[in-house]
Design brief:
It is a single chain. By secondary structure, the protein is an alpha+beta fold. The protein has one domain. The protein is 16% helix and 41% strand. It is built from three helices and seven strands; from the N terminus they run ββββαααβββ. The strands form two sheets. Strands 1, 2, 5, 6 and 7 form a five-stranded antiparallel beta sheet that branches. β6 and β7 form a beta hairpin.
Length: 129
């Protein structure tokens, strides 16, 4: 991944993008908007990459900038993970931006909040330019 800078589009948000019974199709599109931009993703895409794996892609300095800006706490033990809204695990996904050269980094909390009830929240949107 090669980019010059990371620009926050929306930080410290809790945008409800899914709340319901686990769908039969994890790849069904979820469309969400923030201001004048719209993105399409899926539960599968939102839940496939744990946030801690982002450190490998971005490097520790930029990763810690995101964690600090979003107000997350670093896990203290090997059995803890980064968590967001309703203590759901945090994940990231990269989506193509309007510009063909840029990508949008989506930070989302996703998981089963009650038996068979799945929730997903977009917590941060960053543009990688």
């Amino acid at each position: 991944m090669s980019f010059k800078k990371l620009i926050p589009i929306a930080e410290k948000i809790s945008l409800d993008v899914f709340d319901g019974i686990a769908p039969d199709d994890w790849y069904a599109p979820i469309v969400f908007s923030w201001e004048h931009q719209t993105w399409t993703t899926s539960l599968a895409q939102l839940s496939e990459k744990p946030l801690e794996k982002l450190k490998e892609k971005l490097g520790e300095t930029i990763f810690n900038q995101i964690i600090d800006t979003q107000g997350y706490k670093h896990p203290k033990g090997e059995f803890e993970v980064y968590s967001g809204t309703y203590n759901l695990c945090l994940y990231y996904c990269l989506l193509d931006s309007d510009s063909s050269e840029n990508q949008t980094l989506i930070i989302a909390s996703c998981g089963e909040s009650q038996p068979a009830r799945w929730m997903a929240y977009v917590e941060g949107i960053w543009e990688m330019v």
